[in-house]
Every structure is written in C-alpha cells, then in structure tokens.
Amino acid sequence: MSIEIQNVSKSFGTFAALSDVSLTVPNGKLMAWLGPSGSGKTTLLRILGGLEFGDCGKIFFDNEDITDVPTRLRQVGFVFQNYALFGHMTVFQNVAFGLTIKSKGPSKSEIREKVMDLLQKVQLEHLAHRYPNQLSGGQSQRIALARALAVNPRFLLLDEPFGALDAQVRKELRRWIRQLHEDLGLTTIFVTHDQEEALEVADQVVIMNQGKIEQIGTPQQVYDAPATPFVYRFLGNVNVLPASINKGKIKFGRTEMVLEGHATVDHSETLAFVRPHEIEISRKTLFHSAGLEVIIQKIHSAGPIAKLSLSRLDNGEKIQAEVPRRQVDSLNLKEGESVLIRIQNARVFQDDYSI
Amino acid sequence: MSQGGSQLDRPHLNDPWWIRLPLIAIVVGFLVLFLLLPLVVVFVEALKGGIGPYIKAVTDPRTLAALKLTLIVSGSAVILNTIFGVMAAWCLTKFQFKGKSFLTSLIDLPFAVSPVIAGLIFVLVFGRQGWLGTWGKDFLELFGHLAGHYQNPIIHWALLKIAALADVKIIFALPGIIIATTFITFPFVARELIPLMQTQGIQNEETAASLGATGWKTFWRVTLPSIKWALLYGIILCNARAMGEFGAVSVVSGHQQKTNTLPLHIELLYNEYQFTSAYAVASILALLALVTLILKQLIESHLHSKA
Q1: B212 → closest Cβ in A51, A89, A151
Q2: What pLDDT does residue B305 have?
Q3: Least Cα separation, residue A12 to chain B (angstroms)
Q4: Exposed (0-12), middle (13-18) or buried (19+): which is B13, by Cβ within 10 Å?
Q5: Residues A33, A191 contacting (CB under 8 angstroms)
Q6: What is the largest CA-CA distance in chain A?
Q7: pTM across the whole model
Q8: Which of B94, B238, B251, B93 has the alpha carbon at shortest distance from B171?
Q9: How close B1 gets to chain A, by Cα (Å)?
C-alpha cells in the first residue's frame, strides 16, 4: 500500500498546523515522521487515519482518493500514544473488537483462532484474560498493535509509539517493532520527536518543522547531509560557529580550511555547522601550531566517547567536541589546559548567488 | 515506622485535645441536630400511635395512589433524563462545536431556577390558556374540521386521532407532573457523566472507529460500558430527587386528589391535622431515601475500587 499526500493544509484557528504538505510513502516501508512538538506530524498522521480532515489537499491510498472517506471505512491501523485500550474488556476482547463488530463477521471459532494467533505474534498469549490495568506499558503497546492488526489494516500508523515507556523497554520495543515490520511487510508510519529512535528504527525519515517538511531521506542521508539549518540542529548536537567564507575557503578566526561548494561566493560572513565529532584535538608543539586554540573547560568521560566543553582563546566562544575516550587518555587531556582543534568538516547554508 | 498510618498514630501532627474536642463536638452536634434527629423524628412520630394506625395510614387507598403516582413520575423522569443526560454528555464531551459552553451552562439551569418558578413556567407554556394550549385548541379545531370533510373512514379516523393528540391534558395532569419533575432533575445524570467523559477523552472512540465500528456500535460497546457506574450513580441521585420533588409538582398538579404525589399527599395530610398519617407517609419517602443512600454507597465503593 503506497500513500500519497498532496498539498494538505490544516489550521486550528489561527495556528497553521500544516501548510501545503506533499509526501509519498512508498509501499512496505517503515517511515518515521520526526519533528518537535507543534511541527504538525501528529496532525498529518491523524489526517491519514481519518481522525482529522485537512482544510485542503488530497490523500490517495494506492491511487484511490480517500480524502473524504470516514475513519471506519479506511482500514487503517491506528495506535495511540497512550494505547487507548478498552478498560472494561480483557486483552482477548480488546484484540477481538474489530472482528466482532462486523454484522457479517467471522465465526466465534475463527475469531478465537485469529486473536490467539495475533497474541502469539506479540508474544503475550498468556495475558489473554487480563484487563488493561494489569498490564505494563510495553505489554499495552503490543496489545494495542495486535488489536490494530486484527482487522487486516492496509497500513499501520503509530503515534509516538515509545513515548510513554521507560528507556530500557523503549530500546527493546524498538527492535521488536522493526522485527515485526520485517515479518509482516506492512507499510508503517510512526511519529516521534526522538531523533535517535527515528534514525535507528526507520527506513525513511521525514523531518518536519512548523507544519512543513524540511527533509526526506534515509537515516544516513538526513544525518550526514542535513538539508536545512533546522535539520542540522535537530539531528544530534551541533556547534554553530560564526565564520567567513571566500571563494571556496572558510575561515574561523585565523584558521582557514577548504569548503566544498560555495566556490563562487565572494567574501561573506556566515554561520558554519560543525558536529562535535567532526572536531579533532591535538596538542600544541614547537612544530605544530595550526588550528584554533581553545581551553578545555570540562571533560565528561562516562562511556566510550568523551564530551569536551571547550572555549575559544581568541573570543571565548563555546564549542562542544566529542572524541574517543582513548584519545583523551593518550593525550592526557586535563581540564583547564589549552589545546588546538581542527575542524574536519563544516557545512554552510548560504544562497549561492553570483555577483 | 509505617508511612501510611492514620492521624492518630502520629500525635506530632495533631492539635492538643482542647482544640480537637470542641471542633469534633461541633461537627457531631451539627450532624445529629440537622441530619439524624429529623430522620428519627419522622419514624418516632409515625409510630406514635402504635403499629396499627401506622399500617392503616400506609395502606390507605389515597396513600397507595400517591405512592403509585410517585413511582410512575420518578420512573418516567429517570428514563427521560437518562436518555437526555447521556445524549447531552455525549455531545458535550465528544464533539467540538460553537455554543458548547452556552449549552453546558444551560444544563445547570434547573439547579438555578426555583422549582416553584419552573412549575409556573410550565403552566404558562402548556396550560389551556398558555402558549401551546391555545395553539393546541386551534390545532384541534382545524383537524376536527378537516375530519368532517373526509368520508373515507380511515382518513376520518386518523384525523380525529391527530386532533385528539392536541387535546391531551398536560397541566393539572400526569404529563405536566412528569414534565416538571424531568425538568427539575435534568442536571443529575448529565452532571455526573460530563466530568468523567471529559477525562476519558475521545481516543477510545477514535480507536473503535479506526477498527471499523459505527458510531452506534461504538456507543454501546465502548462508551456506555466505560461510564456505566457513573451513569447508575446519576440515575440514583436523579431518582431520589424526583421522588421528593415538591415545589414544581405542587404548581402543576393543581392540588387534586388524583394528581397527588407522596410529598403533596404528606402536605395535604399535615394540613388536615392528620399528623400520624402525615409522618407515616413521610416515613415511606424516608425509607426510599435510605435505600437510595445504601445503593449510592455501594456504587461509590465500586467506583473507587475501579479507579
């Protein structure tokens, strides 16, 4: 099932939740919609599920226009952030719900077989007779998924599927959802504000901000080549450093380096985006003094990567760097020392115009 | 030391006895004087002449007729208000629309209006000389006239039946009492449901819809089961109030024997200086109230165990 969203806009009062969004979700993919709260990702998900209707624009499922089709006829599996399990029904009854409401639905034994099969798939068949308030968050999430899968949905929509879980369960459930997706091959979209989650689980990531799509790509594409300053800031830590560029060269203070592209730009002040791990640290020696001189203010060295808070010697500007722990040990770095940094990679967002 | 001990286990949190004792005495005294004593008085006065006169007063045909009318009226009001209350709560909590807050405050109107005034309003609207009453008379004349023009017996009969509809007596009759009681007790069910349904939100309904359920199925299978205890609680409160309603019913009943409910009958007996009978009948109402209280308590404990 492929999904096509064409020019959808939606506003709540004066707040524009979505402005002119177009997107194609390819068949069989696991896609993450990533963005801060208020970016419109959940609104778009609800529009796909038929729980909300766009002010304008069209939605197609496999080239069939379903823009005005009501929720119950869309055959979409929608799982809410807080699972929305029916509290007065057992786990079994919850999963069976979609099968029992049809007037000419399957027989009792068929329903039983299907529900037990689904419970087995989510590895919770032993909980069939429990009530939702006796389940943990992770279990509830799986039951909500099984319930959505029971009606053979055309695709799955998950709203912040890991949002309400603690860190350990989150990690486990992520892997599990990935595995489930591979087993079923069902087109799945999930909404999240956690970039790590999106990059780890999804085949494709859509980054949204203020009702617009900023970038679409594989996790590696969006991480390695952010299309906009917003994406750069949103995906992981980044240093934003004032710099000047001139004919393919970029200059931080007195140090200069080659910059890909931007060859036609004449002397211009700009902001450079540098990831913390793209900063190399070395000690100043008699023969080696190329680079920016900084003072190490703080070293956080819990884990394999050490995080350094640096401060530029020339203008006091703060820079975050991440280096392997081994390097900190081998260089014997100490807080308060001055060292040299070299920026290995920087990215500049500039409208390249020729003069 | 356990964290969850009662106040008494933790003397360091208590005030000294000379502050506690008077405060407790005031509360207990108040409860006895205003709640317990009247209840006791009702039964004591009712049984003053012995069990014989009590049974005679309770089984008096007029009392039994009043009891029957009270049960019919409160039963009808409860059924109507259950339907209206659930519909109002459903519409106010599951949908967004203009004028919603106005409608929400309108639900409280019967609490704000004095019952006597409510009764008067219904007399003005439904009475023979009232707005709908005069309209009904025209209606009756029109259809009676039309019926005279048709020879076909079926059409003739149908038109006469329609005309008769407009001739139903509302004020000073059973329909008027039911309407007035329904009005007075309208907020109980809706008020009980609205806060609960607001906190429940609409995600369960949205989930049901995404699983293919129609609105009708969603209501019966998802919404109603999740509100059933609160609904029952509202029904019981509504019933208690409906059985005891005096002011509005007094206005629309027209003070005739055949439209006397229990509260009106008690007043009548009392005014006729039949104190023992009055208290005996009052004890029936008090018993009904006690049953209501017990039911309410049972449901409340169930609500808490659920939460």
Answers
A1: A151
A2: 67
A3: 12
A4: exposed
A5: yes
A6: 86
A7: 0.79
A8: B251
A9: 30
How far does A123 lie from chain B, in Å, by closest CA?
A: 22
B45-61 mean pLDDT: 88
Q: Are A19 and A178 in contact (CB under 8 A)?
A: no
Residue of B nearest to A77 (CA): B210
Lowest mean pLDDT among A258-272, A319-333, B11-25: A258-272
Closest A-chain CA to B204: A84
Q: ∠ at Cα A56 (A53, A58), nearest 5°?
A: 80
Beta strands in chain B (DSSP E): none
Interfacial residues of B (vs A; Cβ cutoff 8 Å)? 203-204, 206-214, 217, 221-222, 225-226
Distance, CA of B103 to CA of B287 (rounded, Å)? 36
Q: Which of A42, A75, A80, A118 to mutate to test the interface with B (most CBs of B within 10 A)?
A: A80
Number of C-beta neighbours around residue B122 at 10 A:
22
Give the side-chain half-sphere CA count within 13 A for A227. Answer: 14
**Is the CB of residue A49 less than 8 Å away from at least one CB of chain B?**
yes
Identify which of B136, B123, B234 has the alpha carbon closest to the alpha carbon of residue B180. B123
Q: Is the dihedral of CA A26, A27, A30, A36 positive or negative?
A: positive
Is pLDDT above 50 for B1? no
What's the confidence (pLDDT) of residue A156?
93
What is the ipTM score, two decimals? 0.82
Comparing CA positions, the residue from A162, A179, A201 lying closest to residue A80 is A162
CB under 8 Å, gap of 24 or more: what pairs does A20-26 form?
Answer: A20/A57, A20/A212, A21/A57, A21/A211, A21/A212, A21/A213, A22/A57, A22/A213, A23/A206, A23/A213, A23/A216, A25/A155, A25/A187, A25/A189, A25/A204, A26/A2, A26/A187, A26/A204
What would the two tokens of residue A249 be? 């060269």
Collect all residues of chain B within an 8 Å Cβ-Cβ radius of residue A70. 209
Would you tell me which residues 134-173 of chain A have a C-beta closer than 8 angstroms to some C-beta of chain B? 147-148, 150-151
Which of B206, B212, B222 is nearest residue A86 as measured by Cβ atoms? B222
Integer Cα distance of A209 and A222 in angstroms: 14
| CB pair distance less than 8 Å for A82 and B203 | yes
Domains and CATH numbers, chain B: 1-46 (no CATH), 51-127+170-306 (1.10.3720.10)
User: Which one is predicted more confidently, B256 or B104?
Assistant: B104
DSSP annotation string for A45-62: HHHHHTSS--SEEEEEET
Q: Which residues of B touch A101 (CB under 8 A)?
A: 208, 211-214, 217, 221
Backbone CA torsion sign across A238, A211, A57, A77 = positive
Structure tokens at B284: 């029936």
Nearest to B267 by CA among B284, B246, B283, B252: B246
Q: Which of A45, A61, A71, A111 to mutate to test the interface with B (most CBs of B within 10 A)?
A: A71
pLDDT surpasses 60 at B146:
yes
Contact predicate A155/A1, CB 8 Å: yes
Q: Does A131 touch chain B (CB under 8 A)?
A: no
Look-up of token digits 């360091």? B12
